[in-house]
Amino acid sequence: MMKPEIIIYTDGAASGNPGPGGYGAVLTYGGYEKELSKGFRKTTNNRMELLAVIVALEALKNDGCIVTVVSDSKYVIDAVEKGWLKDWQKKDFKKKKNPDLWKRFLKVYNKHNVMFQWVKGHSNHPFNERADKLAVQAYKSGNLDIDEYYEQTETIQE
Q1: Which CATH architecture has domain 5-157?
Q2: Which of 27, 51, 106, 145 has the highest local Cβ count within 10 Å?
């Protein structure tokens, strides 16, 4: 029996880059939908794009899922599909941004059969728009977490 496909729509946003940011994800499976989002007081758009994918994959209850991640993030999709991530991993992410998140991503990515599908941002794709709205609402909520890795290392990176 083939496992059913899960489709995850993700987006990240930051007001200013760096600045307050958030991620949003909509997981769909059969007729079910689940929304995830969180805001941070200081982070970057790319960190939020990547974190949206990570948190959504971490929310899956079983390993070995067939997953399509629909994202408007060239950063995330190209890193995986163009093989950059493998090279970065071989070099232990030296001189690469967001090594904390990429390592966390690989841990959960390797548990599933994940494909990526790029969608143009802000092109009226209903689920992408919803993920975007979740991300923006999350950082505008005022209930913001601390992106500890980013805040501790940003002075080194910039």
Answers
A1: 2-Layer Sandwich (3.30)
A2: 51
Full-model pTM: 0.94
* Residue 150 CB burial class (10 angstroms; 0-12, 13-18, ≥19): buried
Sorted by sequence, the CB contacts under 8 Å of residue 106 that are 6+ apart come out as 85, 89
Annotated active-site residue 12? The verdict is yes
Active site (annotated) includes residue 125: no
**Is 49 an active-site residue?**
yes
pLDDT class for 158, splitting at 50, 70, 90?
very low
Given 16, 81, 122, 145, the catalytic residue: 122
Q: Where are the domains of the chain?
A: 5-157
Q: 92 an active-site residue?
A: no
Q: Which of 21, 39, 49, 147 is catalytic?
A: 49
Q: Which residues partner with 14 through β-bridges?
A: 21
Nearest CA among 150, 131, 147 for reference residue 37: 131
Q: Check if 63 is active-site.
A: no
